[in-house]
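tool=predict chain=A
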Amino acid sequence: MKHLLFVAVYTALMQIQAQKVKLPAEVVQENLEFYNQRNMEGFMSSFSDRIILFTYEKKEPIAKGKDEIKKLYKGLFEESPKLNSTILHRAVIGNKVIDHESIKGRRGSKKPIKLVMIYEVSDDKILRMTVIRE
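tool=predict ok
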């Protein structure tokens, strides 16, 4: 009887673990790690099929959907062998993650770029990104 109870509890715990939802910061951190590795497949796996990328200054998106995001970042990854983003500060508010980043090696530049990225996460995927540039 104890053995059956143990098996039932263990099975229930494993099902809960399998259904574990990632925190928004975990989703964004995983995406950042793939970005720094220039791992396109991993990087794209973090995005919702409905991903939209905005710049703060404009109302119209600069990329919509995974195909446009992939096209945009594929060129960046190819032209930036030393690409690396460091988080200077991260804030999380609900399903939004706000990163103040310093990016080095973008398209071969030795000068770091500082920007703020606002990520909106839904169902363990990045649904929306807004970039604020210096």
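Residues 22-133 form a domain with the Nuclear Transport Factor 2; Chain: A, fold (CATH 3.10.450.50). The beta strands are 47-55, 63-64, 84-93, 96-104, 113-122, 125-133.
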